Structure formats: structure tokens, C-alpha cells
Amino acid sequence: RKEVxxxxxxxxxxxxxxxxxxxxxxxxxxxxxFWYRQDCRKEPKLLMSVYSxxxxxxxxxxxxxxxxxxxxxxxxxxxxxxxxxxxxxxxMRGLDMxxxxxxxxxxxx
Amino acid sequence: NAGxxxxxxxxxxxxxxxxxxxxxxxxxxxSMYWYRQDPGMGLRLIYYSASEGTTDxxxxxNGYNVSRLNKREFSLRLESAAPSQTSVYFCASSPDPxxEQxxxxxxxxxxx
Lengths: 109, 112
Known about the structure:
The structure holds two protein chains of two kinds. Chain A is mainly β. Chain A contains no helices and eleven strands. Chain A has strands at 4-6, 11-14, 19-25, 33-38, 45-49, 55-57, 60-65, 70-75, 84-93, 96-99, 103-108. In chain A, strand 9 (84-93) and strand 10 (96-99) form a beta hairpin. The model of chain A has no long low-confidence stretch (mean pLDDT 93). Chain B is mainly β. Chain B is built from no helices and eleven strands. Chain B has strands at residues 4-7, 10-13, 19-25, 31-37, 43-49, 56-57, 65-68, 74-78, 87-94, 102-103, 107-111. The mean pLDDT of chain B is 94.
């Protein structure tokens, strides 16, 4: 089993749709969880951290389920500008970070 | 502030050649990282440094060495490049493991 696994994608959705991504992780002792966004041929940039109680930032909601060892990202009212690859990141131990392979999202008019 | 800078942006090497990728950050971050990203894959951690003077192996350290020269700089060295090391290399820094990592623009390396 991979240490961090994401939905394979790609996701192709119309503008205004709601889309959800999941990411499972193998280390029950992991402490830090993040969602990053990566545009084509660019560096990853933080979308949001994921907190135990769940957190929301505008149209984006992140949740953590420690019992089932997964994190999720929900995007509401998708915009064309949301088209990107979304990467989940989990720390295995301290600074030892693992990225998922990424889920590609394309939002179409 | 420049954030995280990497040099060079592009490099082509022949098998067996050596080179050093440079990374510097001006955010006074303690932690620094080197990743590689291959097509269709997420980033894989090569080495990381929790603070000046310390380095640790990540997921894929074989064929690489690193130096944390000071708090600002973290270099990655390929002693004898192989075609399997063709990749995009990203450097990142963060205040600590529980906060956002800031990435440099990447170095696109091709080994022939």
C-alpha cells in the first residue's frame, strides 16, 4: 500500500459544479495534513492546511478523518480558474513529507 | 523578498557528469527540503534539513547528496548523473513541519 493515495482522476466538471477529492494515508501517527494546488509546469502552492475539526476557506472545505485515515477536499461552485492538479500532503514523521500523485481537475464552461 | 530561489532553471547533463543544484530562501525558515517530480507523479522527498547543520534522508535519497551550508542555503549534488535522474527538482522551505512549505520555481534536469 502506498503511503499516500489519491483519487486517480482526471475530474472534468462544468462551471458551478461541486467536486470532492479524497486522499488516504497509511501512518496513523501522522500529524500534519495539507492540500496543495499545482498549475501546469509551476511549483506547488498551499491551498489549505487540514485541521482535526475541519476547516473552510471560501468555496473550499477540508476535512480529516483520523479513524479511517483520510483527508478530503470539497470545492463548491467550481470556477474555470480552479483547473489545476490538487496534491494532498501528509507528514510521515517530523519533516518527512509524502505527497499524493495528484488529482487533475478541469473545469469547463 | 525573493522567497525561495533555485539555480539553474534548466540543465542538460551527460551520463556520469556531476552537478550541484542551488537553493536559497530569505524567509528565515528553519526547515528546507529537496523533492523530485516525475511525469504523472507527485513530489517525492529526496532529503530534508530540520535546521542548519542537520540533514536526513527522505523517500528517494540514492544517488544524491546534500549540504545545508547555512540557514539560507541547501544544495543538492548529483555525483554521477544517470538518465533515471531526469526530473524536475523542487526546493522548499518552511518554518517547521506543521506549517506551509514554500517552493522554488524548480530546476528541469535532463540526463542523456
